[in-house]
Amino acid sequence: MEDTYFYDTYALIELFQLSPSYMVYSKCKIITTYFQLYELYYNLRKMYSDEEINEYFETIKAVCISLDPSWIKEATEFRLKNKSLSLSYTDCLGYVAAKRVGIHFLTGDKEFRNMPNVEFVK
To answer: What's the start-to-end Cα distance of the chain, in Å?
Structure first.
C-alpha cells in the first residue's frame, strides 16, 4: 500500500485548501477515521459554509475505516507516553490506526515531525 496514507485532520484540511505541498498526495489513496472527519468538519465550518464543504465531507466519509477497540488503549498509552507534546486524542488515535493498518500517518503537525511511521509535510 505504498500510495496509501492515513490522512490526519491537518492533511485533510491542506488537501481541501489545495495546498501545493499536499497536491503530490492528491492522487494517493486516503484512509482516515470518523474522528478525523468530525475534527475536519468542525475546523472547515469555522471558515466555510456547509454548502462549500459538503461534497468534500461526503468524499472523506467514504474513506473512513472502523476502529479496533484495542487501538483506543494503545492510543491512550501513546498519548500518556508523549504527554509533554500535548497531542490530541484524535491525533493519537489516528497515529495508532495508521500503524496498525500498515500505512504512514500523513500530517503537518510539528509534534509528529520526527516520529516513526510519519510522513511529515509542511
So the answer is: 23
Nearest CA among 9, 6, 44 for reference residue 28 = 6
- Per-residue CA distances from 4 to 1, 43, 48, 86, 105 (Å): 5, 24, 28, 27, 10
List the domain boundaries for the chain. Answer: 4-120
User: Does position 120 have pLDDT exceeding 80, yes or no?
Assistant: yes
Residues in CB range of 87: below 8 A, 6 or more apart: 78, 79, 111
CATH topology of domain 4-120: Rossmann fold (3.40.50)
User: pTM to 2 decimals?
Assistant: 0.95
